[in-house]
Prior knowledge:
elongated, mainly alpha, two-stranded antiparallel sheet, single chain, 6 helices
Amino acid sequence: xxxxxxxxxxxxxxxxxxxxxxxxxxxxxxxxxxxxxxxxxxxxxxxxxxxxxxxxxxxxxxxxxxxxxxxxxxxxxxxxxxxxxxxxxxxxxxxxxxxxxxxxxxxxxxxxxxxxxxxxxxxxxxxxxxxxxxxxxxxxxxxxxxxxxxx
Length: 151
């Protein structure tokens, strides 16, 4: 991150201040998960206090929020670790990061479309069970067998 962006966020954005317990509570992740994220390289260097205990910054909390969103997209842990490596490598990796996010976005949009079709099927079935089937448009149900034949 550039100096201007860091200054805009405030000097304490990267200041280690939160214990692992506080971060677990704020993020909804377990302490074990936070340690694992650090171990596999998903988290950058985590600060330590004078006793050697992990101390997380606001920057770390923001990173965990992004990781949470990427998990929601279905992105694999390996791809998230790759993304973290690219971020640490600097601005020269912008094109690869952009491609990752474009691909992930396309996958999310496809999932949204699939979920919308699923909701239409559920609505149709609900209407049947509520006795309103004549008011509903029949939902299209597409099934693919092992030979990719649409039924």
